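W.,

You were right to be curious about this one. When I first looked at the sequence I had no strong expectations either way, so I just let the prediction run and decided to look at it fresh. Below is the sequence, 830 residues in total, followed by the output.
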Amino acid sequence: MNGVSIDQHFTAALNDSRESTFLTKVELRFNIAHCYDIAGDLDRAAIEYRTILTDHSVQLTSSLQAQILRQLGNVSSVFVSFFYFLFPVLLLLVSTTMFSTLECIVALLRLQSEGYVKIFSYIAYLGWLCYREECQPAQRPQKIFEAENYLIQSKELEPSCGKTYYYLGRCYGELQDRAHDAFVYYRHSIDKSEADADTWCSIGVLYQQQSQPMDALQAFICAVQSDREHSAAWTDLGRLYEVNCQFSDALHCFKKALKCQPAAPEALKARIRVLEKELHPSSLLIGNLRSLPPTELPGLNEAWRLSIPAELSQRQEEFLKQKQQRYRDGSPLFSATLTLPQNTNESVEIQIQLMNILRANKAEITERERILLEMLESKFGKIDKNDVEQSVEMHAEQDFTNVGIKKEMLIDGDALPSTSSLEIHSVEKSITADNKEVTKEQAKPIKEVSPLPYSFSLTADVRVPLTITASELMERCRKRVDKPNEFLEIFDEQVKPPTLSDVPQMEKSLPEKLLRPTPVIMVESRKEAYSIELQNYCYNSAVALIRGLTQTLKMDLSLFSTKSLLEIAPNHEVEIRSQYKMPPDQNVDHLGQPTWTCHSIRSYTTIAHYAQYQAQSFQYSLKEEAEKLRAASAKYGGGSGGGGGTSTDASNGSLKRRRATVPEESQMPMKLIKFGTNVDLSDETKFKIQLAELNKMPSFARLVAACNMLTHLGHTVYGMNTVQLYMKVPGARTPGHVENNCLASVNINIGPGDCEWFCVPYEYWSAVNELVEKHKLNFLKGSWWPDIDELLEANIPVYRFTQKAGDVVWIGSGCIHWVHSTGWCNNVAW
């Protein structure tokens, strides 16, 4: 990945005459300058930054101006920051050439990290241009002075940004006589962002320069405690231990640094090799260590319990608990205090006054005015003044609930805008029209009122105020039978049945473009695993493949292996699906003809019997492959040298062709296999350990969580609010389907084999339904395996990807999917 590709996207967006919804033109110019910065073209980047600052035709916000000044003044560990925070985003841009410029910007916005990014390009980890520019030693103080000026201006514009204080500390840390100022600014940076590993690491370096090893040790421990994958902090900690002749701890730190950053400098790798050699039991260094004076620093295991790291750890745990509690408390939509519109009383009072005027002139009013009077009397005629005020509140609450939430969530304390007299009259007209329709519907003959509603829909309009009590509601229901002439509908009973949704209109595309790239998310730290950004990204995706999540959360997936389950519950029931083994993108019938019908016969067995079958299948496959290799070797092994190699390659090629063309050469499909599906793991006494392991998942993907609607259902829906296990051999298939009620679901591949997934976004379900019915199958109840070529010919996009061991697949709401196992594996899903 290089900055040129990114620059091309931003330049295209800048040249677009339309204004972007996400970034303004000046923000795009800022990002283009930043691309030059990343690419190493510092002179051009500085020119672009200064051009934006001096351009009087644009208005810069204080935040943006502070960012530009910080960019001009600041430098530091750019490569490390870029690698850890931007690489997954830029990889997403490069991995697909089908993304438009706007889609690239959206993808970057979705991956922004809270606390690090405000607008995705404003990254505080970008290095100081002036500090980083190559110059003569004599010019170095001048460059630092220039950087200091820019950073001070940035601090004045945005005093809440902890990164600015950190960069100032780095500048002063290079000057021997400004070490105290460096400590002061580092302290300010810690106050702004306590869990910043870069700041703690720099404090440790400064302490080490001041010959304060114990303070340096605590700072380095705080750095790696804030970010366990901070390679620079592990390296500096190793050097500290090495200087103090604690070589075992130093080696451990260097290895951690190498693990966090495999592309570490060769000097670090060479140092690890030397320490490993010298610390070997046969080395002379072991004997010399005994003659060294006692160590001054606590060992690595003891350092975590020092005062400052322990205090930081406690505060981080408290902060995490508070964040989790806020998440459990619910969305601000429900916790915000909302101010009702002030003109509601006035509107109702006007209607009452209008009713009184029409009553007073009842003998002279027209037919239309008489209808309006009847409508107003039905609404206000039988209530007194106190009831009017109560009705006002009820209608105001109902109107606000039905309309206000659809527009946007109001921030606590924001009042709704006032309404002018003209708006009141327009509202009255609409209310009059609506109430006419209601009156017509409610004034039906008695014979049309049936004991039960004609239809019921969850989307039907409610005809009663939300403040109605249970007793009042029951009284209304009794009138349907006892007094049908007084009965008024509680909800709209004339709702039409649902219809197929419209398929998104797209131009006819090439099949290659309809094979959409699957969103792949790399999770590399616990912070990323529990971030709200990951949750929002999954919520907004039709399907997402999350890699590294189970490893980062240290989930023991071996608890779901066949061996573990065999030890826990050998007699547990397993549903078996007998299927024919075929390639993932092929489905044929008994005669070898292409079909959408997925052959699958149901039976039942136990985990013990299926485990035996799974193991025998693996052993038989190994034996079969060995026999094929021996046969090929015996047939083509007579030659030697280059000729022998050529014949063997030809043999392998023909073997692959024979495998691929089996359905064409034979009238019968491939061999019959057994797929163990829908293994219920809901028994908390039997599978307590397994269910507890799944609680390590982020809350939005957890089986039981406050944000999971199925947790509050109060009823068991197998596979939805309970965990189900799937035991597979190569070729096992889960036919095409959507989850119950189109809810989202989670699937984890336990391994060791892989699974191949095919997904279609929910928006195209009606088009898929038409194809399924075309093949005389039922979308919801049938067992069908789509033909990808037919889907692409129908202009239906498809996601196709491989789920490896440990990968988590998030299936979005209503996403149509079907799965094929390419190896021996187990899966858990809910």
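Here's what jumped out at me. Residues 75-128, 331-342, 384-447, 639-669 have pLDDT under 50 and may be disordered. And, maybe more interesting for your project: The longest helix spans residues 607-636.

Coffee later to discuss?

I.
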